[in-house]
Amino acid sequence: MTVMKKYFIFLWVFIVTSFVVPSCTKNTADTMTEEQAVENLATTQSFRDFSKAFIPDLIGLVNYHRSAIAKNQRAGFIRELETTGDDETKIPAVYEKFGLQFENVITLQNKVDNDILALLNQNRFLLQFDEVQTKRILLNAMEKGFHSTEFEWQRTKEAISNRLGRPTPVAQLPIFPQTNGIAVNKAGLTLDEVWNCVKNAVGVGSAGILGIAGLTKLAKDGIQEVVIATSKWLAKKAGWIGAAITLFEFGDCIYSEAID
């Protein structure tokens, strides 16, 4: 190879690395604002699919607690949880004492966890945000979608409303085996009424229901599915007592909306 050819090859490599590599670095290093994340998220099919699953799954978790623990039993339930000191070996007995199967609670929580993990894996720009920011982005994107007149979001809202009123077969979710299934929305609530309660429960100040930080870590590690054992760990980290209180308050909100 002549000296001239070597020179031109060197010059070509220099030009490519000077323009292409910095450009790639800039794209990966760019940060996104919350407002941009909301706009991006609200336009994706993955977020519409997430919304179709997340709201009914969350309501199912709430209704399961409310259906078994009467209002005048809640104080006793919380006191019993406090005495466990987050000892995982004692917590199932507390749930069972008040008519709840602990494994069913975790199964319902696992569905919610997997809804969120799938969304994080499909929209990895969310991984740059902390827990509070991510909650705020999810809520604002869903709010934007629910107020949208676009056809895709109209169909999404229709699908959510249909699922809220459809019983869940016991074969898929073995709760209350003496019945044929449990309707997520027994009171015929509108999606707007349900959404008002979801916003309050998942709001930035409510850390008890969603373990966003733990799920973000899983997504960053390339995990595609939350197993039952991990849902137990996430629930413990979030705090059993805070989660129970938030779920009860969520149930009260649903009940208030139903009787209005």
Molecular structure report:
The chain starts with a helix and ends with a helix. It has 260 residues and is an all-alpha fold. Helix 3 (45-68) crosses helix 12 and helix 9 packs antiparallel against helix 12 (240-259). The longest helix is centred in the N-terminal third of the chain and has 27 residues, at 3-29. The protein has twelve helices and two strands. It has helices at 3-29, 34-42, 45-68, 74-84, 91-97, 102-122, 131-146, 151-164, 191-202, 212-220, 228-238, 240-259, and strands at 167-169, 181-183. It is globular. Helix content is 70%, strand content 2%.
Topology:
Layout: H1 3-29, H2 34-42, H3 45-68, H4 74-84, H5 91-97, H6 102-122, H7 131-146, H8 151-164, E1 167-169, E2 181-183, H9 191-202, H10 212-220, H11 228-238, H12 240-259
Antiparallel strand pairs: 1-2
Helix pairs in contact: 2-7, 3-6, 3-8, 3-12, 4-12, 6-10, 6-11, 9-12
